[in-house]
Design a protein that fits this description.
InterPro entries: DUF4307. This is DUF4307 domain-containing protein. Keywords: Membrane, Transmembrane, Transmembrane helix. It comes from Catellatospora bangladeshensis. The chain is α+β, with helices and mostly antiparallel strands. It has a domain of 81 residues: Immunoglobulin-like, CATH 2.60.40. Helix content is 18%, strand content 37%. It contains 1 helix and 8 strands; from the N terminus they run E-E-H-E-E-E-E-E-E. Strands 3-4-7 form a 3-stranded antiparallel sheet, with no helix packed on it. The chain has a 3-stranded antiparallel sheet with strand order 6-5-8, with no helix packed on it. Strands 1-2 form a two-stranded antiparallel ribbon.
Length: 147
């Protein structure tokens, strides 16, 4: 903020400090983080992001061992037949988690199924009869991984 002082010559403007000089001590100079601390923090962040990336790739990145349900039928009070297609490598086997849920969404049946490649490993079809503890409304494949 600038003010015009009556003690100064005409046309001169006196600069007035926002605080009285010497009253509040001197201002500290801004100090940045030390270079080793910034480097260490950057290395830790890179390591954490790398670990997260590896974990996500293992869960979602590999195109092999992916399954999709094509049908669920023969539903009774104690079973459901889940038919699904899975993509396998030519020499690979998979373990798939098949489950059933009732109308409230509660899981009422779960089983791990070992799948071997068929004539076309890229499109191996599997039908599995899953025993349930109640009447299912859906059958699904929760996920597959190498056996």
């Amino acid at each position: 903020m600038t003010e015009t002082s009556t003690d100064t010559a005409a046309g001169q403007v006196a600069e007035r400090a926002p605080w009285p000089a010497g009253r509040y001590g001197r201002r500290r100079e801004r100090r940045g983080a030390s270079r080793p601390a910034v480097l260490a923090l950057a290395l830790v962040a890179a390591l954490v992001f790398t670990l997260i990336g590896v974990r996500l790739y293992r869960a979602y990145g590999d195109g092999d061992y992916t399954a999709s349900v094509t049908a669920f039928d023969e539903i009774t009070d104690t079973q459901v037949v889940v038919t699904f297609m899975i993509r396998l490598p030519a020499d690979g086997e998979a373990v798939c988690l098949v489950r059933a849920r009732d109308k409230t969404g509660t899981e009422i049946g779960r089983e791990e199924v070992t799948v071997r490649p068929g004539p076309d490993p890229e499109r191996t079809m599997v039908s599995h009869r899953l025993v349930t503890t109640g009447r299912p409304v859906t059958g699904e494949v929760k996920g597959c991984h190498p056996a």
